[in-house]
Design a protein that fits this description.
The longest helix has 9 residues. Helix content is about 35%, strand content about 15%. The protein has about 70 residues and is α/β, with parallel strands linked by helices.
């Protein structure tokens, strides 16, 4: 699904940021060669996403706009 989305948008995985909220999202982004930022809320099965090894963890969605700005 993620490869299909990149293809539809005409994007390259190496130039794309994957934002998610779970270990599955981290694995998906890593397997595609993307940087991965996780949010500290959402579907994470009770796991502290700070321990998963993402490139960044955000506590509020507006941090994404600030950090990318």
């Amino acid at each position: 699904m993620a490869y299909c989305a990149l293809d539809q948008l005409g994007l390259n995985a190496g130039n794309t940021l994957f934002v998610g909220d779970s270990e599955t999202d981290l694995r998906t982004g890593r397997n595609m060669g993307m940087d991965v930022w996780l949010v500290s809320w959402g579907y994470n099965s009770g796991i502290d996403v700070r321990e998963l090894g993402s490139d960044r963890v955000m506590d509020q969605f507006d941090e994404l706009l600030y950090l990318l700005g």
